[in-house]
Amino acid sequence: MQTYPAHSDHKKHADRLLTILFVVFVVVLVLFVIAFRHPVVPQSWPTATARISGTRIVAVAAEEHPFQGGTVLYRVEAHVTYEMNGKRVDRWAPASGMKRDKPYLESWLSHKKQDSCLVRWNPQNPADVEAMLIDDVPH
């Protein structure tokens, strides 16, 4: 006498159908969120001219890589003095993105010899400041 597993084919079809319905639901949900989200209106950041009293390269983060060890991330910072909303601000501000290549940042910084720059800040968070250095090398 032969025995067959009870409803194994029906279970496979039901599992497949549930998987397809789940994928369709997720796709529709994502499309709905994209279509009906409120657009973010970018607000321009205020700017000011700042005096530069120094620059430095600092280690700001470390990335861990399995089987490879870690990587240190560096960025350039400028010590700037400027006025924001009638008040004098004196601080170190990021002046570059984060890079793994410190010699590259040293070379990049060697072309930035001005004593002033433009700073900009996030109007929602004035502590979020960026110094914008320009090249000192003629083109």
Write a structural description.
The protein has 139 residues and is α+β, with helices and mostly antiparallel strands. Helices cover 27% and strands 42% of the residues. It folds into 2 domains: 7-37; 47-132. It is built from 2 helices and 5 strands, in the order αβββαββ. It has a 5-stranded antiparallel sheet, with helices on one face. Strand 1 (47-65) and strand 2 (69-84) form a beta hairpin. The chain is elongated, with a radius of gyration of 27 Å. The protein starts with 7 loop residues before the first helix and ends in a 7-residue tail after the last strand. The relative contact order is 0.16.
Note the main attributes of this structure.
single chain, 139 residues, alpha+beta, 2 domains, five-stranded antiparallel sheet, 2 helices, 27% helix
What's the gist of this structure?
The chain has 139 residues and is α+β, with helices and mostly antiparallel strands.
* Portion of residues within helices: 25-40%
Low-confidence stretches: none
The succession of helices and strands, N to C, reads: HEEEHEE
Average pLDDT metric: 82
Physical arrangement of strands within the biggest beta sheet: 3-2-1-4-5
Helical stretch tally? 2
Principal-axis shape equals elongated
Structural class: alpha+beta
Please report the total strand number as a whole number: 5
Q: How many domains would you count in the coordinates?
A: 2
Give the termini distance in whole angstroms.
90 Å
Q: What's the Cα radius of gyration?
A: 27 Å
Strand proportion, as a percent range, falls in 35-45%
Question: In this structure, how is the largest beta sheet organized?
Answer: 5 strands, antiparallel
